[in-house]
Amino acid sequence: MKRKAVSALCCASLCLSMLACAGCSTENAPNATSGDTSADVASTPENQGFDGVFDATVNAGNAQEVVYVNGSWFDMGRQYGSQQKEQLENNWASVMALIYTEADDAAYNEAMGKILKHYEEDEPAVFDFLSGIADGAGISKEDAVVAVMGSSVLNYDLMMHYDPERSKTCMNVSAWGNMTQDGHHLGGANLDAISATPAAMFSGMISYPDDGYAVIASGGLQGNAFMNSEGLIITYAGGPQASPSEGAEVIDREGTFLDTLFAYWYAATKCATADEAVKMLTETEWIHTGNINVSDNSGNAYLIEQKDNAFVVRKAGDYGETDYLIAANHFRDESWMNDSYEAYPDSVPRANTLERVMLDENGDVTPLTLANGLGSIRYYDEGKWSEENWDFGGFYQFHSPEGDDLEFKTIFRTIFDGTDLEMYVLRGHDEKFRSDVPYGTANYCRLILGENMQATNKQAETDARIAVRNAGAELYKNDSVDDGSLEYYNMAAEAVHTGCNYTTMADCAGAQGDKEQAAILYGLATSQFANAQRYAQASYTTENVIFN
Hints:
Elements: H1 12-18, E1 66-71, H2 73-83, H3 85-99, H4 105-122, H5 124-137, H6 141-149, H7 156-159, E2 171-175, E3 186-194, E4 204-209, E5 215-217, E6 225-228, E7 233-238, E8 249-250, H8 260-270, H9 274-283, E9 290-295, E10 301-306, E11 310-314, E12 324-327, H10 344-360, H11 367-374, E13 379-381, E14 384-386, E15 390-392, E16 396-398, E17 408-417, E18 422-427, E19 445-448, H12 453-477, H13 483-511, H14 515-540
Parallel strand pairs: 1-4
Antiparallel strand pairs: 2-3, 2-12, 3-17, 4-5, 5-6, 6-7, 7-9, 8-11, 9-10, 10-11, 13-14, 15-16, 17-18, 18-19
């Protein structure tokens, strides 16, 4: 494929700060709040070069919430490609702008050819999935690799340098046993990013592979939080890069090429336990540095601190934790601490804050505890609480778990209960008016991973109906209802009705044996039920009552 660099997008930082990623088209997104703004997005058929065009007006406020995929690896890829076509195209466009600051067509073609050949020979499930993405989105296999896995697949060296901004990318937690209420296995993560980056716009994905475990993921293939049907939870936080330390195990650089975010979903489809997942994640060649939190329902939990070609695996107790593990963006391994020193002023207060919130409820930690800790806009450090959570030094820093930097923000938050297979998702901030995500309600929705698409969707409907019922009962008690509350309530009730209509259509498609059409329609239905939960809560309270 012949491509041309575009001077207007030659600066990577400009691209990332200005890029807005398309949601689904308005006819497929009943919750869209804008008109038809679809421009000539950067579609990438075989005969079209990169022209830098994408829809800059669509944002996370009007993206579809959930997509389902099911069947063979190829079928799942095709379904994801067709449902996330605009998001993938925009992600591809932004990545190409990055690539052309560092590489030319020859390097691109060589790298993509090598990667595809490797997958076809050694990892056929990944090859089939990418082939399905290409088929569903109408792009080449080479472009599917880039759209899904990012610029790091071109040249991992480009991603393996220290950037102070990397110290602001996400944080995660796992908790179990004596730390939690009734011994439940919990996990959670913040995804922090520039709000206009494509990762902010991808829908959540619920996958039911014929060959593998079902997985629920809050941000699809571009998110940082994954839970499978066995209760295995994998979450990720980025980390700074440094040279490998003496004695660290070195990863074979000729191993499998996988971008981190895709890799964690893939590992969750293949592994039942934390031990299996750690083995897979440390034997495969990942691209990024970072902290990988892996835990399961049997009380096994690990945190993998990974650099470009080395890793250290730690567990609870190594640094004083008891039945919990927390990671921001710095390394705890003593031999690596100096390597991530510049990440400390930002990372350590965020980790300390979440730890303090959890320790205050030691033995009684619930999903709401994790939500409150990850959503804290103040921070705890050096034995005291501070209300002012950001400053300006050599670069902007935020010190609270909920991202409040001028550029980097918490885009969405995920809380898992691996015992009950529940996922809670917040788009934007707990503090509504600090959020960079348009139309955010500052409330969570809940999805429960069922044995199939129909069961997961039905539970989402039940939760939506309960939320609307509770909102109506609360509003009825008020002497007067303001216009904003009434608007949110009507939006919630309307979303339930729309979701039920989609459900009827999905059930019909499923009965006729059309699993692909059923997946699309169940996705649209569940998206409506998720939004109904948020709108209902927003109509009468700022509390996250969905947790109850």
